[in-house]
Amino acid sequence: MEVRLATKRGFCFGVEDAIELAQRTVRANEPGRVAALGPVIHNRQVVEKLQREGLDQSGRLEDLPPGSTVLIRSHGVGPETYDQARRHGLNVADATCVLVKRAQTVVRQLHEEGYQVVMIGDREHPEVKGVIGYAPDVIVVDAEDDLERVLPRRARLGIVAQTTHAPDHVARMIGAIAALPFRELKVVNTLCLEVIRRQEAAAELCREVDVMFVLGGLHSANTRELAAICQKQGLPTYHLECWGQFRPEMVRGHRVAGITAGASTPDEVINEFAERLRAFPAPETA
């Protein structure tokens, strides 16, 4: 069948940098002396590859002997983790995405300027958990129902957002906050341009195809956001990790399939899926 790829898809520079640092750190140390505090990125294939290369991604600071290296994953961590690593005599290899680093800095600065910091994001996402550690009492909201927690109503608010969130969702949340009687709002744009470009390319591709496949980790926030955007275009949309999850009924009755991929999805996963899908019988010959 005919297959079209989104013009922007797959690895972003932050993910590439994190993987490169992880591999370089493992090579430079003795086996068992490097551990990451959770998956370096949200992609099962990459996580398993790094595991085979010798990177423990289920590490805990308290289990590492002094002199070992702890790898901070791309989602970042709060300042208390760095303090704990120093107390344990550990080296730190920091793979935090530079845009997440910026969000952390912005949160600290807003607090120092006297703002009540509000973060638009998923409170369970590791990026959000790390970013809110840079100021006390950061309020996390992700739906209008959450706004009742933003008190007092006359406060000065400093607003940031999870880097992988969709701009239209963030804009709606900012609009809802602005409609309430706060004394001052300061909004700092912390969204990732690479993620936005992938979202725009996915929406454009949806106008050219009959069915969409969004490839990437099922726990990847930016990949789930891509799938949601495609679904909003009214297309049958499937969020899959790899070709092994494909089922023939997904393309039954469709002639043109579109493929996009999250910022943590490697090219080999995208290329294999595209090649196998192109070889799949078109509807009239299936």
Number of strands: 11
- Percent of residues in β-strands: 15-25%
| Terminal-residue CA separation | 10 Å
CATH superfamily of the largest domain: 4-hydroxy-3-methylbut-2-enyl diphosphate reductase, catalytic domain
Shape estimate: flat
Major sheet size, sense and barrel closure: 4 strands, parallel
What is the domain total for the residues?
3
User: Helix- and strand-based class?
Assistant: alpha/beta
The tally of helices reads 9
Q: Describe the strand arrangement of the main beta sheet, using strand numbers.
A: 1-11-9-10
CATH class of the largest domain: Alpha Beta
CATH topology-level name of the largest domain: Cobalt-precorrin-4 Transmethylase, domain 1
Mean pLDDT across the residues is 93
Under the CATH scheme, the architecture of the largest domain is: 3-Layer(aba) Sandwich
Oligomer: single chain
Give the topology.
Elements: E1 2-5, H1 13-27, E2 34-36, H2 44-52, E3 69-72, H3 79-87, E4 91-94, H4 98-112, E5 116-120, H5 126-131, E6 139-141, E7 156-161, H6 167-178, E8 184-187, H7 193-206, E9 211-215, H8 221-232, E10 237-240, E11 256-261, H9 267-278
Parallel strand pairs: 1-11, 2-3, 3-4, 5-6, 5-7, 7-8, 9-10, 9-11
Helix pairs in contact: 7-8
